What we know:
By secondary structure, the chain is α/β, with parallel strands linked by helices. Helix content is 38%, strand content 18%.
Amino acid sequence: xxxxxxxxxxxxxxxxxxxxxxxxxxxxxxxxxxxxxxxxxxxxxxxxxxxxxxxxxxxxxxxxxxxxxxxxxxxxxxxxxxxxxxxxxxxxxxxxxxxxxxxxxxxxxxxxxxxxxxxxxxxxxxxxxxxxxxxxxxxxxxxxxxxxxxxxxxxxxxxxxxxxxxxxxxxxxxxxxxxxxxxxxxxxxxxxxxxxxxxxxxxxxxxxxxxxxxxxxxxxxxxxxxxxxxxxxxxxxxxxxxxxxxxxxxxxxxxxxxxxxxxxxxxxxxxxxxxxxxxxxxxxxxxxxxxxxxxxxxxxxxxxxxxxxxxxxxxxxxxxxxxxx
Length: 325
């Protein structure tokens, strides 16, 4: 009689997990606590991951949704990686708050594109998801009515601008690459003169993680995407996995959420993580699988990533950091 556990193969997608913008945002909170002491206030979740937020709370961060929840104007305030409407830093300045902006530089790039198109007299079409903090922040860069949000190809086909209006489009950075291509194609077909970004707005990390999932999807019986329900890039990874050959693809925040009914002996399980999910949670899922199965882990590597972003000047630690700015 044998007690051998059933075999299971895990295809570990790479790249996965934290992107440079998320690393920078978390470091800004940690360095601010180290430099200025506790508490440090953070407007909105710094990144969309409950594990990360709770860890920063333990270190001395207090999370609020709006600035008027902050009682002490003498403490530092940090804006999340998703970006904020212009009204937010304006309100902070009116209260003489010291703030640090953790907006991902690739989101800031979209903000600058929107401002440039507006100055050039264009009405702007923003491809994105209503209610997402990044979309709220981007639309809040310009006066009301300057930007029209389009979420689907059908909405792109129904969009009717005023006559003789010059148009430009920008996109949320965490969208499905394939879905966005369809929306852009629809806009370009209807409006051949529409202006776009010099370089696509969907960020490198979103694109790379989607390509990595596509590379393993057809080999997998199940794909687990580690991420949060309110994380756009994590949700898009699930969608991409399903449409690329693995219908049984699902989001899990922690190992405790694994639906074991879908994981059987001899199966191949794909595993990836959204750009705001820490690697410790991937390790936790692998450990949970190993408790039940004899697991063979194979890394499916698609691309290296060497992107990094500088911290705000106020948090740089050395003269060398200043010289590199």
